[in-house]
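Q: How do we represent a protein-ligand complex in a form that can be generated token by token?
A: Start from the inputs.
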Amino acid sequence: MPQEQNKGLQPKKITILGATGTIGQNTLDLIERNPSHFQVVALTGNQNIPQLVYQAKKFKAQFVATADADKYQDLKEGLAGCDIQCGAGKEAVLEAASMQTDICMAAIVGVAGLEPTLHAIKACKTLALANKECLVSAGKLFMQSVKELNTVLIPVDSEHCGAYQCLAAEQPENIQKLTLTASGGPFRNLSEQELQYVTKAQALKHPNWEMGAKITIDSATLMNKGLELIEAKYLFALEVDQLDMVIHPQSIIHCLVSLKDGSVLAQMSEPDMRVPISYSLGWPQRLQTPVAPVDLADMGQLTFEKPDMERFSCLALANHTLYNTQRLGPILNAANEIAVEAFLTDKISFTAIVEIIEQVMEKMESHLANFNPMELNDILQIDERARYLALEMLKLRV
Ligand code: NAD
Ligand code: MG
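Then emit the structure tokens for the protein with nicotinamide-adenine-dinucleotide bound:
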């Protein structure tokens, strides 16, 4: 593996929350390629202890945590004879997130990553944010904390990382619109009728990206793009009418920034998450990656389509949420997490995912009419209530 030298600079201290996941593994792949640039401080995982132990030993982490309290013995035994501290359970993950570092890669999936990432905002200089659910559930609180603590926030989600780069030199008043691209997922061309019969295996086969199970299903329902529009609203402080999306099946252009003079800036790369991850790790420099720049002539054509909100009605729910993200974001996110998990465990069909989310939102929206949660506890309570209702809806179906 080719290695790049760090030209006498101190290695950056890094913690990876969610090290065993797809983003975590890609982050470690880049660290392995640039070993003199980084020093791994802490790694966290959940159920996959052999993988976590392997990573901890290979990258000589100081501290390792599993979120699963029952896995402490396994982790301890795996690390026997090594000079690596370890812990298990929620507190141990928070301890890892609280270690002082230059960079924290926040790549836990779901709202489980919210509290650790809020801790990391206090402990790191640069937060590389992959976990979009943090922003969907608690965007206002999250962005306020980033601002108060002067933490540099670099988005890792490919579209947002592209937008961050396009927007870097632009005054806010020049920006007319940010358009995120979406591949359209594996079911882009299926009819409403056909969508009812798709299988888990088909849904887990994304045409362009290799990702964890939850985001792969979100990409098949297009909820992922809905979550990303909410993510973009918070990251770039944009109004709802400045946010747009377009289907682009090749996933080469990740975003388009339209400016008031008629210019449109786009960011392109092959669909390989190591490109945006490397941007967040190297910032303000760039790191070498094994990904070749796109060759447009070789590609021949890039195509674009309008999204169909009727066939992919998760988009309509997310669009509705966009107008009231503070109140509806935690509900949309929690109901989606439960519904996706139910689909992944063969409890419901693909089209039932959106039905469950819609039912939970309908039930909770009127109750919370004038409540815009800002405190973490209030957000977590809404999250818990939405999960409870989603589970109740599931019971009615079996
Ligand atoms: P993944 O499922 O592959 O990995 C998830 C990680 O979170 C694992 O390390 C797992 O151990 C950990 N985890 C799971 N449940 C946990 C819990 N309760 N407490 C603590 N840790 C827990 O997911 P991924 O694809 O790497 O995605 C991670 C995040 O990055 C998601 O929020 C996703 O939306 C976002 N993201 C991923 C991609 C991608 O290409 N994979 C792209 C953009 C954004
Ligand atoms: Mg994305």
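The pocket of magnesium ion (ligand 2) is lined by residues 157-159, 228 (CB under 6 Å). The CA atoms of residues 110 and 133 lie 5 Å apart.
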